[in-house]
């Protein structure tokens, strides 16, 4: 085939449906796409996932297709048979060996389901507390910590023969805009990028990471065009990543349907620009019409010479090399490994190691359930990368199991003044009042509740359910016990700490002015 006819191999596509019959075989066979991405919408169980991936692979008689998923852990788990902890939990636990073992456990489960590529780890250094899309998906705010844990996670994947993907290059950690919704910018100079954002990616490259995912973020220190994000920038992908950092692995874009691309260059034109800039594999996660339009646009750009032949040959070589690597490493794991007792125990170990006490809890812990009050804000997905909603409040559920005598009340995510007044009245005589917040800086009603309790003379213990940044919104706490994801294992570990049944060995993985652990 000509280079233009092989253009489909430079794409990874998603689709809707859970049945093997939902696989877009015609698109895979006729366009020859190089990979498929799966989401929670595609995955029901380990057995169903295995059958689905087998059907996908049957469409490629030559080399195995790259079958990828975002199985980061924590708030981004496409199939949560084992409740794997997220990056910030592992950063708080502080053990690279634990991170490696978790990475290996995640990879082994993916391998059992026929998934050969993970779009993880996240190597963004989350130095911006207001970051709406990275946050607890990062190992922390210290570049060295992120680099060390990222490399350990990659080693765990390599131990199991699964491709690992470092994201989002050159770094999405210091943004206050979600690239799913708009086009963020990181305005720092090269000295700062070298000292912070690029540190984990350099370490990942040294660790042999298989792929690097681009960020739909503008970096004016590297790219002179103020409207050209890294994904479309030759200066970033070729000049910085290839030539300066020396990466010769697979470069994959973030999804080209995200508004940072779709509302500017457009998905199809963005695909052309991304490949011309140095990307090897273009990710289009949802819409078949856009997938076909983008493949046609790239094919036309190759035929016209807009995308040079050498660039196409280079990209095809890297995609093919990744597929050959999968073929060489691949050995199907046992389906019984998915959710195995050893994996459940490892996830629980990590959750217990992550829970972090902040401030002086000496006079507050252990709680006396008959005197204390627990107010738990109801969590929910808040960004597009999340797909699975908690089945009720994990903090209330943990309290019911571990301390049935503890009075516990659910709170709406943004309580209005009337609800705040009722809750303060209900707290009369309680000591202390434990408030399990959820992204409090985004919901003024939560901040108003805590301040009203403080004004009424209560000692308030905060339990931030999604990372420590809530502490910045409500200063003056008597103490805090930090969770890094609103999941049952994290809630149970936090409650056990409050009840004096377990220690809180975690350390804050992010810098918080005025707070120490």
What does this structure look like?
With 517 residues, the chain is of the alpha/beta class. Helix content is 38%, strand content 10%. The protein has helices at residues 25-31, 46-58, 87-93, 96-112, 143-159, 190-195, 199-206, 234-244, 259-262, 267-277, 288-304, 309-329, 341-354, 394-402, 417-426, 444-455, 470-473, 488-498, and strands at residues 11-13, 35-38, 66-69, 117-118, 163-169, 211-214, 250-252, 282-284, 356-358, 373-377, 407-411, 433-436, 460-462, 479-482. The protein has an 8-stranded parallel sheet. Strand 10 (373-377), helix 14 (394-402) and strand 11 form a beta-alpha-beta unit. Helix 5 runs parallel beside helix 7 and helix 10 (267-277) packs across helix 11 (288-304). The chain is globular.
What strand order characterises the main sheet?
A: 7-6-5-4-3-2-1-8
Mean pLDDT: 95
| Number of helices, counting only DSSP H or I runs of 4 residues or more | 18
Shape: globular
- For the record, give the distance between the C-alpha atoms at the N and C termini, rounded to a whole number: 61 Å
Structural class: alpha/beta
Task: Explain the layout of strands and helices.
Layout (H helix, E strand, L loop, with lengths): L10 E3 L11 H7 L3 E4 L7 H13 L7 E4 L17 H7 L2 H17 L4 E2 L24 H17 L3 E7 L20 H6 L3 H8 L4 E4 L19 H11 L5 E3 L6 H4 L4 H11 L4 E3 L3 H17 L4 H21 L11 H14 L1 E3 L14 E5 L16 H9 L4 E5 L5 H10 L6 E4 L7 H12 L4 E3 L7 H4 L5 E4 L5 H11 L19
Parallel strand pairs: 1-2, 1-8, 2-3, 3-4, 4-5, 5-6, 6-7, 10-11, 10-12, 12-13, 13-14
Antiparallel strand pairs: 9-14
Helix pairs in contact: 3-13, 4-5, 4-13, 5-7, 10-11, 13-18, 14-18, 15-16
